[in-house]
Amino acid sequence: MVQVKNICCIGAGYVGGPTCAVIAYKCHHIKVTIVDLNTDRIAAWNSHQLPIYEPGLDEVVFERRGKNLFFTTEIEDAVNEADLIFVSVNTPTKKSGMGAGFAADLVYVESATRGIASVAKSSKIVVEKSTVPCRTAESMRTILETNSTGNLRFDILSNPEFLAEGTAIKDLLYPDRVLIGALQTPEGRKAQQALAEVYANWVSTDRIITTNLWSSELSKLAANAFLAQRISSINALSALCEATGADIDEVAYACGRDARIGPKFLKASVGFGGSCFQKDILNLVYLSEQLNLPEVAAYWKQVVDLNEYQKKRFVERIIKTLFHTITNKEIALLGFAFKKDTGDTRESAAITLCKHFIQERATVRIYDPKVADEQIFLDLTEPGIVITRSPYDASRNVDAIVIATEWDEFKELDYTRIYKNMKKPAFIFDGRLILDADKLQKIGFRVHTIGRKENEK
Ligand code: NAI
Q1: Mean pLDDT of 20-41
Q2: What are the coiled-coil residue ranges (predicted)?
Q3: What is 6-203's CATH topology?
Q4: Cis, peptide link before residue 425, omega less than 30° from 0
Q5: Please, what is the average pLDDT of the chain?
Q6: Would you say residue 339 has pLDDT above 60?
Q7: Phi, psi of 7 (to 5 degrees)
Q8: DSSP 96
Q9: Residues with Cβ within 8 Å of residue 265, at least 6 apart in sequence
Q10: Alpha-carbon span 197 to 181, nearest angstrom
Q11: Residue 217 annotated as part of some ligand binding site
């Protein structure tokens, strides 16, 4: 029985950082070293201001850092010392070349794998943590076996991560399941068992699922496709609600009470964002096309198309309501992160909304409690945006407020004060269904909510 005593994680991002910090937190007998090429990121992990915001992350890191949890750019040493290595690097959608716009860019996975092969002096268990296309483990094994020196063994496991940003620490401490795929050979099963033992330090064994490698790789893409599909389904229904007078929250509740459907992930919104859903579905679409399954590809592609439609539809509703023009008007955008409780803006619906507003030559006054100013300037290079320090500052003298992220604090604002300082009529567009429309209407607002007709006077 292999016992894991030393773990290295390549990639100190949203997944590698929290995931391996929790392993260190729960397994004091294991030394965990998280490495990255990005020196600024590693410096931040070693400082008081961690590079990512996640509720509960500071406590976990500050408790174990310097004891059995280390962050470094000394990749070679960490790889050499480790008996198990997580590869948790980014796998973005390819921007050019074959499969551009759909396929996952595996350049970082390959370079991390080659890095392991070139420095390894002992046998290793190598774990795909990144989300990758089905059968990537096979390529990793070939690279490792043909590029290493000596008689080393590399067992490849697939252990996709199911955490959601904003609840990462909770998801890692109490996962619904941990999935570990391995080649079904005696050595593969041994490696699978070794990783299962690590998780068994805090996860009950009935929640640790072991499968073959390809099922594990495909399950990650499938799980994200299912989740995104639910959002696109409810968003498609929200368009029907706006046209008919049905209320999307009531429809979601009525449907969700059916135990076969369930209530979770049925909140209509301006559209899903985040670094994963779109990327992973497009990856699935590409895989389906490559396998000559065009009908399957078209089915999943529609989930992404509907998401784009939802954002466009929301923008059109805003322009139409603001008397068919927003040129030279000012709009307060509350929320820039792709969801609450994170500072991550990757694929945030807010970015698309802002770009549309700016194209129409409106000025956008942005407020988000967690997103750094520099990040907003990276996401929006166009002129026409103002970053503000509070929702009150953002909404001063504007024509309309748009809720783009469901931050809890937006439910509790002093809307009477906000109303007084806005141009009239004062419009508010709730893209996240978090506001009390009746209350706002009583103050004097004209309220437009996704999935509802305008509040009738
Ligand atoms: P990220 O971009 O935040 O972090 C990846 C890190 O890997 C970067 O800091 C980068 O500098 C580093 N890196 C790249 N190549 C390297 C190399 N050769 N050596 C050392 N470091 C290297 O990405 P994130 O969000 O952590 O995602 C990682 C993977 O996990 C992706 O495949 C993603 O699809 C998957 N995933 C992401 C989730 C999320 O919520 N962000 C959830 C579940 C899976």
Answers
A1: 98
A2: none
A3: Rossmann fold (3.40.50)
A4: yes
A5: 96
A6: yes
A7: -115, 140
A8: S
A9: 227, 230, 231
A10: 14
A11: no
By C-alpha distance, which of 285, 333, 342, 363 is closest to 432? 333
Measured in Å, residue 111 CA sits from the centre of ligand 1 at: 13
Question: Which protein residue has the closest C-alpha to ligand 1 atom 29?
Answer: 130
Annotated active-site residue 276? The verdict is yes
Query: What is the residue whose two structure tokens read 């509790």?
Result: 412
Q: Is 151 exposed, middle or buried (0-12, 13-18, 19+ CB in 10 A)?
A: exposed
114 by Cβ neighbours in 10 Å (0-12 / 13-18 / 19+) ranks as: middle
Hey, where are the domains in the chain? 6-203, 244-457
CATH number of 244-457: 3.40.50.720
Of 432, 429, 427, the C-alpha closest to 445 is 427
Among residues 40, 66, 59, which one has the least CA distance to residue 51? 40
* Closest by Cα among 177, 185, 190, 186 to 216: 177
129 CA distance to ligand 1 centroid (A)? 9
Confidence bin at 456 (pLDDT 50/70/90) = low
Pairing of strands 178-182, 154-158: antiparallel
Cβ of residue 168 lying under 6 Å from some atom of ligand 1 = no
**φ, ψ at 202 (rounded to 5°):** -145, -5
Q: Among 73, 78, 72, 59, which Cα is nearest to 21's?
A: 59
Interface pTM (ipTM) of the complex?
A: 0.99
The beta-strand segments (E) located in 138-282 are 154-158, 178-182, 208-212
